[in-house]
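Quick log. Single chain, no ligands specified.
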Amino acid sequence: MKYTKLDIPEVVLMKPKSFGDHRGFFMETWREDEFLKHVKAPPFVQENHSKSTQGILRGLHYQIKQPQGKLARVISGEVFDVAVDLRKSSPTFKKWVGVVLSAENQKILWIPPGFAHGFYVLSTEAEFIYKCTDYYAPEHERCIKWDDPAIGITWPIISGTLPVLSPKDESSMSFVNVEVFK
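-> predicted structure:
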């Protein structure tokens, strides 16, 4: 596995070694001992799987209590995945990084606790899997507007369309009004 720190160094892009032939491929997507050499993270306690169609935008989500670190990958299709630093004491506070995750590129993204997370589906449909370091706690979940100018994410929105949002994401808050981490 190759580990690459992004512009926000705590966010790490991982690229597994994939071995393929006429039968298909094999790759190791998770190995705790190697992961902990490169990333400081609590153990994973939950794994989630979502399927979405093109133009769906999920996020920007985080939990103010029971914050979740997430290890994300796409097993079908392609998404633009984003992490936003919400740690007020961090030199990268309010900065974001985004990468394309796809079944084809087989990349995996580590998003530590203290970050908001979201993704936009680029392909006809996509299946997205992510491990979490804490349990989902809806009472602690917060949502930031996907297009908040205070953050300024450059989403690769399909020309002539608006992203499709859930009611929760449509009613999300502006960055100036959300709770952040110390």
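The chain has two helices and 13 strands.
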